[in-house]
């Protein structure tokens, strides 16, 4: 049956709760312990895939799941868990699943502001893109500028972005503006396989390929003047966004532990509707080992984005001939959107710790949350949502409602609507880089196919996705960023 | 016989590979995967690596085997062009029961892979394949032909 028919059939069994969310009721699939909730309005409902609805329902069957199996409006089919999924599990009855985090552990986004205005950057945008492309390794088979010896790599896995700062990449004051301070506690390098060490050795400080990017942008719309001012975001000012993760290192950690979890499923007799949901009870050694290894990969990713940001600052310095300090190139924030974390949340009037899995979902903590750095505590956590390379990206803030409804979570990006193959077919005979240039966006990519696969039409319109989370109140729009220059892998 | 086809999957990339034997289907799935990364016509047989992997299921063996090749590419840049399977356990004359899962049987493949190190200056860059997955994974014997469907995370 084609997807459309299956979705129509599926939707008959779903219930619209309000204009921003629908319920996947218990009983939609056998064994569901809780319901599913998908944040979509009537517009994005049309783009739902039958398979991703099934995946939301599948996650609801997992032991110890709390409240609901949730999906954000950028939901699409993933491995086991849907991308855009949020699921919290009890620490006694619940499980930990690498599939709930994803292969690219701590894939995430960071945003830098500048004092530069759009008009100052426009005449030099080609130079900037060329220098960035030279300074920041990207693409298939590219080698990083950093070679990690085994001892260095172990230190990096424990210290995260702090390792980068200690080695001259960026400033100490960057660290407080990174989720978890750029370093999550509890990483254990002794649980990392030799293969992961080998893959990580030459990939620190590399952008990678696929949907990862570095973008020079300008702020074209402010929705919340007060919040934007507090963040240092002003209309027509230029920003730099970096989207990448833990590279081959994180993938190897995920691959290694999927094997461990496969065995754990048999050992602990867990009944699964899909093999990619492989998991282990939270308190089991398998789950604890995975979490310690996942934290090491998360730290690898935070250091990776820190190094790339450092070279982005250097690139601007080269082009403008002044120091990054003068250019006001300070970090706004850095968020992880593929991670599992122990967090305290209130459920049924009681505060308790849970293991929250976010796979293609961004943490969105409210004002006053103790995890936020002092400078942002009155505001709420900055949420960074990248769109496709032709449209826009957004800055939002976390809210109390997110804390109540979604374990403090929101969307993470646009989500594809076209397969890579379809996109390549659609782009045949077209020069995507020239189409982008006509729109005033300079792109440079290592792979010939990448631009076709990553063209705007291949993605949902990010504005629609962000409108749903804003309307639902699980984060609030602050500013919209438009691309000017893009580096792709 | 056609060796492999591309599978059209939203967000990722997949391969449907064929073989008269399970060994041949494994080899074609591997070459299909390499062809997603680069143009295999440009790759020469300059050196040979030995790869061995084990699992307790046939699906597990395929995923683990492909992940092993991905590891050699991602860590060292090695792209294979010719694959010779020296040992494949168990040998299949009949389709495995229940997809060959569980039962404590040992599945093993030993092979030598000839190729060269990827050079972004000389070789075409296509997709950066990062993992083979169990997502919609299928290994089947249809009449006298083996067919493999496998999806890669990119």
Q: What can be said about the biggest beta sheet of chain B?
A: 5 strands, antiparallel
Structural class of chain A: alpha+beta
Q: Class of the largest domain in chain A, according to the CATH hierarchy?
A: Alpha Beta
Net shape of chain A: globular
Query: Which term fits the overall shape of chain B?
Result: globular
Q: What is the tally of helical segments of chain A?
A: 16
Mean pLDDT score of chain A: 95
Give the number of domains of chain B: 1
Helix content of chain B: 10-25%
Strand count of chain A: 19
Write out the CATH superfamily name of chain B. Answer: Archease domain
Helix and strand sequence of chain B: EEHEHEEEEE
Distance between the termini of chain B: 28 Å
CATH fold-level label of the largest domain in chain A: tRNA-splicing ligase RtcB
Structural class of chain B: alpha+beta
| Count of helical regions of chain B | 2
Please, how many domains of chain A?
Answer: 2
The portion of residues assigned to helices of chain A is 25-40%
What is the CATH topology classification name of chain B?
Archease, Possible Chaperone, Chain: A, domain 1
Note down, in words, how this protein is organized:
The complex is a heterodimer of chains A (489) and B (154). Chain A is built from 16 helices and 19 strands. With 489 residues, chain A is an alpha+beta fold. Chain A folds into two domains: 121 residues, no CATH class; 343 residues, tRNA-splicing ligase RtcB (Alpha-Beta Complex). In chain A, strands 7, 8, 9, 11, 15, 16, 18 and 19 form an eight-stranded mixed sheet that branches. A seven-stranded mixed sheet of chain A has the order 1-2-3-4-5-13-12, with helices on both faces. In chain A, helix 6 packs across helix 11. With 154 residues, chain B is an alpha+beta fold. Chain B has a single domain, classed as Archease domain (Archease, Possible Chaperone, Chain: A, domain 1, 3-Layer(bab) Sandwich). Helix content of chain B is 23%, strand content 40%. Chain B contains two helices and eight strands. In chain B, a hairpin with a 2-residue loop joins strand 1 and strand 2. Classes of the chains: A alpha+beta (489), B alpha+beta (154). At the A-B interface, helix 8, helix 10 and helix 13 of A face strand 1 and helix 2 of B.
């Amino acid at each position: 049956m084609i997807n459309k028919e299956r979705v129509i059939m599926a939707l008959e069994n779903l219930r619209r709760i309000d204009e921003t969310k629908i319920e996947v009721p218990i009983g939609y699939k056998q064994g569901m312990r809780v319901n599913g909730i998908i944040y979509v309005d009537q517009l994005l409902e049309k783009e739902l895939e039958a398979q991703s609805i099934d995946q939301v329902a599948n996650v609801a069957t997992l032991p110890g799941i709390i409240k609901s199996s949730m999906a954000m409006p950028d939901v699409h089919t993933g491995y086991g868990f849907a991308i855009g999924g949020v699921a919290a599990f009890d620490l006694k009855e619940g499980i930990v699943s690498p599939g709930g985090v994803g292969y690219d552990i701590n894939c995430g986004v960071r945003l830098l502001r500048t004092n530069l205005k759009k008009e100052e950057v426009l005449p030099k945008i080609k130079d900037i893109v060329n220098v960035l492309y030279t300074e920041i390794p990207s693409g298939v088979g590219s080698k990083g500028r950093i070679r990690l010896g085994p001892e260095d790599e172990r230190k990096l896995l424990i210290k995260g972005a702090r390792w980068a700062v200690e080695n001259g990449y960026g400033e100490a004051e960057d660290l407080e503006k990174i989720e978890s301070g750029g370093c999550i506690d509890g990483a254990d390098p002794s649980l990392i396989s030799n293969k992961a060490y080998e893959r990580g050795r030459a990939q620190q400080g590399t952008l990678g390929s696929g949907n990862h990017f570095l973008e020079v942008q300008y702020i074209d719309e402010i929705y919340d003047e007060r919040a934007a001012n507090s963040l240092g975001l002003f209309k027509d000012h230029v920003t730099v966004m970096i989207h990448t993760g833990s590279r081959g290192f994180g993938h190897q950690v995920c691959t290694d532990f999927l094997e461990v979890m496969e065995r754990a499923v048999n050992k602990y007799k867990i009944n699964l509707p899909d093999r990619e949901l492989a998991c282990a009870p939270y308190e089991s050694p398998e789950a604890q080992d995975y979490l310690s290894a996942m934290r090491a990969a998360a730290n690898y990713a935070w250091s990776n984005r820190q190094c790339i940001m450092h070279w982005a600052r250097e690139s601007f310095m080269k082009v403008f001939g002044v120091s990054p300090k003068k250019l006001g190139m300070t970090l706004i924030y850095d968020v992880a959107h593929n991670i599992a974390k122990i967090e305290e949340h209130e459920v049924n009037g009681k505060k308790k710790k849970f293991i929250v899995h976010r796979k293609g979902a961004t943490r969105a903590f409210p004002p006053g949350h103790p995890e936020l750095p002092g400078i942002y505590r009155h505001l709420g956590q900055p949420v960074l949502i990248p769109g496709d390379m032709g449209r826009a990206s957004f800055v939002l803030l976390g809210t109390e409602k997110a804390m109540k409804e979604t374990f403090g979570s929101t969307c993470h990006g646009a989500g594809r609507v076209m397969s890579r193959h379809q996109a390549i077919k659609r782009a045949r005979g077209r020069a995507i880089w020239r189409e982008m240039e006509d729109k005033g966006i300079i792109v440079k990519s290592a792979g010939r196919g990448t631009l076709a696969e990553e063209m705007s039409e291949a993605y949902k319109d990010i504005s629609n996705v962000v409108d749903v989370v804003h309307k639902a109140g699980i984060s609030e729009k602050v500013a919209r960023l438009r691309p000017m220059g893009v580096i792709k892998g | 016989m056609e060796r492999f086809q591309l599978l059209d999957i939203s967000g990722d990339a997949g391969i449907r590979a064929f073989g008269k034997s399970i060994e041949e289907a494994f080899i074609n799935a591997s070459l299909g995967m390499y062809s997603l990364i680069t143009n295999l016509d440009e790759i020469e047989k300059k050196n040979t690596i030995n790869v061995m992997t084990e699992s307790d299921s046939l699906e597990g063996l395929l995923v683990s085997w492909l992940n092993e090749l991905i590891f050699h590419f991602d860590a060292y840049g090695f792209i294979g062009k010719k694959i010779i399977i020296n040992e494949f356990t168990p040998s299949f004359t009949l389709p495995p029961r229940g997809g060959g899962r569980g039962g404590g049987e040992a599945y093993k493949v030993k092979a030598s892979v000839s190729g060269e190190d990827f050079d972004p200056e000389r070789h075409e860059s296509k997709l950066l394949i990062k993992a083979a997955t169990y997502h919609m994974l299928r290994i089947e014997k249809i009449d006298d032909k083996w067919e493999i469907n496998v999806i890669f995370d990119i």
